[in-house]
Amino acid sequence: MFLSLRAEVEDALEGALSALEFPTDDLGIEEPPADVESVLASSVAFRLAGEAGQAPPQVAAQIAEEIDVDEVAYVSEIQTQGPYLNFLPSDAYFGETLETATDEGYGALTDRDTSVVVEHTSANPTGPVHVGRARNPIIGDAVATLLEYAGYDVSRHYYVNDAGRQMAVFTWAYETFDEDDLEDDPERDCIEYDLVRYYRTGNAFLENASEEEVEAAEAEIESIMQGLEEGDEDAYERVSEVVDQVLSGMKACLGRLPAEFDEFIKETRFMRNGDTDDLVSRLKELDEAVYEEDAWQLELEAHGIDKNLVFLRSDDTSLYATRDLAHHEWKFDEYDRAVTVLGEDHKLQARQLRTALDLLGNDTDPLEQVLYSYVNLPEGKMSTRRGTGVDLDDLLDEAIDRARGEVEDRLDDRIRDDDLDDEDIERIAHQVGIGAVRYDIVSKQPTKAITFEWDRALDFEAQSAPYVQYVHARCCGILEEAGLDPETDLADQDIELDALEADLLDTDAERDLLETIARFPAVVDEAADDLEPHQIATYTREFADRFNGFYRECPVLADDVDPDLRAARLALVAASKHTVANALEILGVAAPRSM
To answer: Do 309 and 297 meet the contact criterion of CB atoms below 8 Å apart?
Structure first.
């Protein structure tokens, strides 16, 4: 309803300003401070004071008089407060919010008929997923779901680096060494943990072997790269045997978050179909193309970039950046928008990519990049090449273990009388533990570096995932106690939504909660426009505070509650349940039915 109210306020202000012969280019609409009763405010009188030749408060009063509130369904009154116009919500605003939010799809916006590809994670398939880059799949998955809620047709992609030197080294090592040559046992009984030992062994060999042995190994590595460049099927199959196995294990790990993909796009695809060769030919024709230091490069200094973009080696093998250019031109052909989630260390490459695409004649307006800083643990930094650091699997296991301990410690303090068996506790431990990791990471602005801390992430009392998840569980408990199924819309449970009397919800706690619920679709809309899922996390914390205030002050099922008020409050609980469940879904955090 907030979006509808805002549209009405915009129309009313434009009409009033036009009638008063004032310009309508800037309506000054904003959300007022928390201590102001209105849902929306306008500061337009500030801007118009000079033109009107009056003080801002007088201009505000003049505009307010020009608006007929009876013609605005969701506004009950317009109050002036100095230079501000404050728009107070009507009973219809609250009533329609209550009815609309009892639908399980509440918060999802109408179809925009716009396709978006969201590329995220795209970690090189050289071994297990590490914690340092865990922010990419968590943010990327949340961005994709947020855009889906905002009405976009979203496709989630993982761009697979299966053609670079790393994969050639991995393939050579996998074919060269035996189990007996490997130093350690796998850290886990998972394929990527098994095979990464070959990669580590190969790198160690290249650093420590004799010059003659290294030269022979490099020749084989080079032949693999040349084979891929020439479209040799045998070279492709050799590399794919390694890539596909490692990738299968990485998929399983990412699936625990969960972060799933609609398509895995291999970079060799654009070598095998000729797109890379075509792109190299076009790059060479650009005025910025030069052959220096045994490589073809683009000089980009005139475009504000000091470092050249190398796109072809002296042996005619392309680079990752070259193939990624072909990849992005394919995206432009297939989708209306292209969003990529990248680590901050790729900022330069992102600028080079966009500039090169511009020089090639592409419209790069559809290209958007979400840059993030890395996640650190107190233990320090990580390195995939050396095989040191913390794997994402380890972090998730510890999260589940710690959450299990928290749940078990709280069993005696539970209010609900539904006995939890071991299976329930394990389910909740997974939901809370993994939810805590995701929420703690996605709730921060992506560009800010963060250090993951257990005490903060798993704090049931502070503004963390468990704090918000508990609101959902509490809503479900109230509905179940009332004989309702929390997973089913009220309209499908013989509840007459038209008969609900939302005007009975007149306490500050009830109105504050309804106003917060009403804003959810608008928060989705703004967060999607900004590609900032952390705005949803911020909203969930505010929502949890508002619901807990309602829960403390407004009994729902007590014997002395009037039946009509009871029905309205139950609907408010159902609306709260759908709101928080859908907000958590955007963030990729489970919404437990019981905790």
So the answer is: yes
In this model, does residue 544 exceed pLDDT 90?
Answer: yes
Residue 183 confidence (pLDDT): 80
Q: How far apart are CA 75 and CA 456, in angstroms?
A: 41
Beta bridge mates, 369: 340
Give the model's pLDDT for residue 458: 81
Instruction: Count the alpha carbons within 13 Å of 197 in the hemisphere toward its beta carbon.
Output: 18
Closest CA to 342 of 353, 332, 331: 353
Do residues 550 and 509 make contact, with C-beta atoms less than 8 angstroms apart?
yes
Q: Is domain 1-89 annotated with CATH 3.30.390.50?
A: no
pLDDT in the model for residue 389: 63
**Domain ranges (residues) in the chain:** 1-89, 392-587
Asked whether the predicted pLDDT for residue 388 surpasses 80, the reply is: no
For residue 269, what are the contacts with CB-CB under 8 A and spacing of at least 6? none
User: What value does the mean pLDDT of the chain take?
Assistant: 92
- Residue pair 393/128 in contact (Cβ under 8 Å)? The answer is yes
Alpha carbon distance 271, 283 (integer Å) = 15
| 302 CB-contact burial (10 Å; exposed 0-12 / middle 13-18 / buried 19+) | exposed
Q: Considering the entire predicted model, what is its pTM?
A: 0.91
Q: How many CB atoms lie within 10 A of CB 267?
A: 24
Residue pLDDT, tens place only, 439-480: 999 999 998 888 888 878 887 777 789 999 999 999 999 999
Q: For residues 329 and 326, what is the distance between their CA atoms, to the nearest angstrom? A: 5
What stretches of 34-109 adopt beta strand conformation (E)? 40-42, 75-81, 84-89
User: Read out DSSP for 384-429?
Assistant: TTTTBS-BHHHHHHHHHHHHHHHHHHTGGG--S-----HHHHHHHH
User: Can you give the pLDDT at residue 412?
Assistant: 74
Confidence label for 329 from pLDDT (cuts 50, 70 and 90): very high
Confidence (pLDDT) at 64:
95
Three-state secondary-structure class, residue 485: coil
Q: Which CATH architecture has domain 392-587?
A: Orthogonal Bundle (1.10)
